[in-house]
Amino acid sequence: MKYGYARVSTIDQKLESQIEQLKNAGAEEIFQEKFTGTTNSRPAFINLLNTLESGDTLIITKLDRFARNTREALATIQELFDKDIKINILNMGVIDNTATGKLIFTIFSAFAQFERDMIVSRTQEGKEYSRKNNPNFKEGRPNKFTEEQIQLAYELKQQGMTHKMIERKTGISVSTQKRRFNKISNKTKL
């Protein structure tokens, strides 16, 4: 049987392109998830590994969808090889339990980890530069809602509306309300 594995790192990213590529490559069943690739403790990935049997083929679009850490990737690949499972990485080709297949995979895994490390390094350098040169630099994602929108939601809460009612009315999630309302409460206590 041919199984596909599609993964993106964040909830906002889309899986459709990977799923289409996997189907076109012959994947009969596709496991998918939105989970960081820096760990092998991914629920759908673990389920996939437990599903694969001798003679099956695992299809992935790119090596970095599978793993970014060379050591863990090699350990997982060795487990698959021990079960006589082939890996088809669409932008590289089929890797099997031969000396050449193992060599190719080891080299490409090292490059995938190198690429990941370079991304992290560039990101850290960019943040450091911004901290030094941009007085308005703030770490993390920008707020989705303005202070005015949060203040309006806070006033609705003060008038007796529930968090769910406010969410339906404003689109501000319950968790965001609680977090931002705590900030407002802490400011008023000072």
TrEMBL record:
Catalytic site: 9 (o-(5'-phospho-dna)-serine intermediate)
GO biological process, one term: DNA integration
Protein name (database record): Recombinase family protein
InterPro entries noted in UniProt: Homeodomain-like_sf, Recombinase_CS, Resolv_N, Resolvase-like_N_sf, Resolvase_HTH_dom, SSR_resolvase
Region entry Disordered, spans: 125-144
PROSITE patterns per UniProt: RECOMBINASES_1 (PS00397), RECOMBINASES_3 (PS51736)
Keywords attached to this entry: DNA integration, DNA recombination, DNA-binding
Species, as recorded: Lactococcus hircilactis
CDD domains, per database record: SR_ResInv
Organism taxonomic ancestry: Bacteria, Bacillati, Bacillota, Bacilli, Lactobacillales
GO molecular function, one term: DNA binding
Protein family: Belongs to the site-specific recombinase resolvase family.
Ranges of residues in domain Resolvase/invertase-type recombinase catalytic: 1-134
Gene3D superfamilies, per the entry: Homeodomain-like (1.10.10.60), Resolvase, N-terminal catalytic domain (3.40.50.1390)
Keyword DNA-binding: yes
